[in-house]
């Protein structure tokens, strides 16, 4: 089955030949645009954000952060803060009873800085007081004697610089070798690319509430996207057993990464344990920019070798990722970058060197499409250069090299999942182009630069660019991706219990649809998430659609068997001969026909199940190994208008074709793709957290521009390919990361086409988009 969109943009499914489409589709179940359960609460302002939490006897927290990117701490004097009226506690690294450091990959990040601060905004101390203003004033009253040190902010200098951390400056090095390293092509193009620091910019404030428990433990209420990992990190720092710490997930207003800063939760828990009172902290936007992880800034050097017909022979690449002060998930991001350095193309030979290094820049970590976005911008820039060198159209050079199922990645792994890259490329190239703008007064708003822009219509050039992107699904390199779910049915109501956090990805809606389709129960509730439930893992890489959705499906099928067995036994038939649809149970021969409610007859049925995908393996010393469970692909054509005198860019249209495996919720899928394209547009044109010698400049939403509705182009989803991945539950693939990865490269390609400039830097700066280089006096 393949999917398309109608003229109005609504996602529709086109049945394969010989398959009759249902005349009256069900109002629920898989494949239906079921409304999100929390849509009304978000629209009405009753959604339970962490910043709105309250408790009796509440204290307020504030954190003192370093104003320097690198400095030695001579002393920390908290006397003035502790003596202020209303201050209940002040904690520093000396008050951390357990592990002084934490981290998702490597525990190299201190809860509070000890002997040295390594990035601007690193926490030094935390204060609890009876009023938020008192807490902030007390934090400001803490006197820290710094010896300011020279910050290392250029990742290229990190190799020779003195160690910035006891673990050294090099986090990981991957020297990938595939095929013949000495192979050469008849033609060769090379390029240098620089990708900026994109921030997750979460919608809601990063906040939390910690409440001490009578047993000496603590409960932490926060918008966590990985509650069990956060619990384990907190317990280790507090010197407690994991069962003494409970993380309760409040409403997550939306997440494009691991949005919360675990350091906030650690500060809250320590203060709650010290004071014996509930403690709340709501981070300012400035604190969010300074504390949480960002997309890795990356430097990339490429050489592409090809024959005279444009067939790729070899790719050489050097990838240098700036991890900032601590490791976080940089090793994972580097593995993705190196593995996908050649893109969704057939490359017989590859030599790729990848490094992730520590600097004194802001911390980098997981963000949607990490690693894959950076290399996509580079390898697609190379494909444009190769096309220009050979006199081929940009889409043609790509068509001659696209990957398909059965081909090899440069890691030596065979692509066993559906890889309809050629079909995706064909869909976007054959789609009609948008009309050219009319040079009339009422159409002036269409000029790059927006309403009342200074540009002239005669200086505007239209460019059409292409990009193909790929991402991996689930964790990689041996990560255990198990998830557990319980499904209960009582009366006419079903309940799903699973620790998969709803971050805006639609898992809660999907869980309802799975149970509705499997059990024929209309009313399905998804329980809130806390760490008393079995773990479900991180909310990233589409894992909850695959792993947690798979666990829900298995549990629902077990309940289905419990429901049908008595009926099957009574009528002397197998349960496989009974079906459930629209709340009714019927047999294949029509003899049996009853409702689900009648079959339940007041009984409560429940089952718990796990889902664990097939194992993967770490990359070896030459970058070889079956590191990924599955892959997803996307093709985007970008049409952009560029003022070649001012360098302003207006993206007119993004045409998308995507490999989705199966459409589970058409409306939800469309929203996810549109959001991903828009986030990628931000990385292409405006989003860059700027620093000066490690100091974050303008850490707020006036200095950090995000795309708004006025910046978003027309997004046309022209094809959704539904080649189901047989190893994935439902056959569905991750939906939102791959358009984020692909769209920045497509925008850069369109600007190249309009200006003839190389465009090797993201976000694209105006001086890079003018027709001729800017002359400096």
From TrEMBL:
Signal peptide stretch: none
Domain Aldehyde oxidase/xanthine dehydrogenase a/b hammerhead, first and last residues per copy: 44-150
SUPFAM superfamilies assigned to the protein according to its UniProt record, in alphabetical order: CO dehydrogenase molybdoprotein N-domain-like, Molybdenum cofactor-binding domain
Annotated GO MF terms: iron ion binding; oxidoreductase activity
Residue spans crossing the bilayer: none
Entries under PANTHER family matching the protein: XANTHINE DEHYDROGENASE (PTHR11908), XANTHINE DEHYDROGENASE SUBUNIT D-RELATED (PTHR11908:SF157)
Protein name as catalogued: Oxidoreductase
Organism whose genome encodes this protein: Streptomyces noursei
């Amino acid at each position: 089955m393949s999917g398309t969109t109608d003229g109005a943009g609504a996602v529709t499914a086109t049945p394969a030949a010989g398959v009759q489409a249902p005349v009256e589709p069900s109002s629920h179940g898989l494949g239906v645009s079921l409304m999100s359960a929390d849509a009304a609460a978000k629209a009405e302002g009753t959604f339970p954000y962490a910043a709105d939490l309250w408790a009796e006897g509440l204290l307020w927290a504030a954190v003192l952060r370093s104003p320097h990117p690198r400095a030695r701490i001579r002393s920390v004097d908290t006397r003035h803060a502790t003596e202020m009226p209303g201050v209940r506690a002040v904690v520093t690294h000396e008050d951390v009873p357990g592990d002084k450091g934490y981290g998702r990959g490597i525990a190299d990040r201190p809860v509070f800085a000890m002997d040295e601060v390594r990035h601007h905004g690193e926490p030094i101390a935390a204060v609890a007081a009876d009023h938020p203003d008192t807490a902030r004033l007390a934090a400001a009253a803490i006197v820290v004697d710094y010896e300011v040190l020279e910050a290392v902010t250029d990742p290229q200098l990190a190799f020779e610089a003195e160690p910035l951390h006891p673990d050294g400056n090099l986090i990981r090095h991957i020297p990938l070798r595939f095929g013949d390293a000495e192979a050469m092509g008849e033609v060769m193009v090379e390029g240098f690319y620089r990708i900026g620091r994109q921030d997750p910019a979460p919608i809601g404030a990063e906040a939390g509430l910690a409440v001490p428990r009578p047993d000496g433990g603590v409960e932490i209420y926060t918008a966590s996207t990985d509650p069990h990992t956060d619990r384990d990190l907190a317990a280790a720092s507090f010197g407690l057993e994991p069962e003494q710490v409970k993380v309760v997930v409040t409403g997550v207003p939306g997440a494009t990464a691991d949005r919360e800063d675990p350091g906030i939760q650690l500060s809250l828990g320590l203060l709650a344990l010290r004071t014996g009172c509930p403690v709340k902290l709501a981070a300012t936007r400035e604190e969010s920019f300074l504390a949480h992880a960002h997309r890795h800034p990356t430097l990339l050097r490429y050489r592409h070798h090809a024959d005279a017909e444009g067939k790729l022979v070899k790719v050489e690449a050097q990838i240098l990722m700036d991890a900032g002060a601590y490791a976080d998930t940089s090793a994972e991001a580097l593995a993705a970058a190196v593995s996908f350095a050649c893109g969704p193309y057939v490359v017989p030979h590859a030599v790729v060197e990848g490094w992730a290094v520590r600097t004194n820049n802001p911390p980098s970590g997981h963000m949607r499409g990490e690693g894959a976005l950076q290399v996509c911008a580079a390898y697609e820039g190379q494909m444009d250069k190769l096309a220009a060198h050979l006199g081929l159209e940009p889409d043609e050079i790509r068509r001659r090299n696209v990957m398909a199922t059965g081909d090899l990645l440069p890691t030596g792994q065979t692509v066993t999942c559906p890889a309809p890259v050629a079909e995706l490329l064909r869909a976007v190239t054959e789609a009609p182009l948008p009309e050219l703008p009319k040079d009339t007064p009422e159409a002036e708003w269409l000029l790059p630069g927006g309403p009342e822009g200074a540009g002239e219509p005669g200086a505007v050039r239209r460019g059409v660019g292409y990009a193909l992107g790929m991402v991996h699904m689930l964790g990689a390199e041996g990560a255990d991706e198990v998830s557990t779910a319980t499904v209960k049915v009582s009366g006419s109501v079903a309940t799903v219990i699973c620790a998969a956090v709803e971050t805006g990805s639609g898992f809660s809606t999907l869980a309802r649809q799975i149970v509705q389709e499997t059990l024929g129960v209309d009313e399905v509730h998804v329980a809130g998430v806390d760490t008393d439930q079995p773990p479900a893992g991180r909310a990233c890489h589409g894992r909850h659609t695959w792993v947690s959705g798979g666990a829900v499906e298995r549990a629902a099928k077990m309940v289905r068997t419990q429901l049908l067995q008595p009926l099957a036994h009574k009528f002397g038939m197998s349960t496989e001969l009974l079906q459930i649809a629209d709340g009714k149970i019927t047999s294949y021969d029509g003899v049996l026909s009853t409702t689900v409610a009648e079959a339940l007859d007041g009984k409560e049925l429940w089952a718990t199940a796990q889902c664990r995908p097939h194992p993967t393996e770490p990359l070896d010393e030459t970058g070889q190994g079956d590191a990924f469970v599955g892959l997803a692909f996307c093709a985007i054509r970008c049409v952009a208008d560029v003022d070649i005198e001012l360098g302003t860019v207006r993206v007119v249209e993004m045409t998308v074709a995507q490999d989705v495996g199966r459409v589970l919720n058409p409306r939800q899928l469309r929203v996810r793709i549109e959001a991903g394209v828009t986030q990628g547009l931000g990385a292409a044109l405006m989003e860059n957290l700027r620093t000066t010698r490690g100091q974050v400049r303008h850490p707020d939403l006036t200095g950090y521009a995000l795309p708004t509705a006025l910046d978003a182009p027309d997004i046309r989803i022209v094809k959704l390919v539904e080649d189901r991945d047989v190893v994935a539950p439902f056959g569905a693939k991750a939906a939102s990361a791959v358009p984020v990865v692909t769209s920045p490269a497509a925008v850069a390609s369109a600007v190249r086409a309009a200006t003839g400039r190389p465009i090797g830097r993201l976000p694209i700066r105006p001086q890079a988009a003018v027709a001729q280089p800017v002359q400096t006096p």
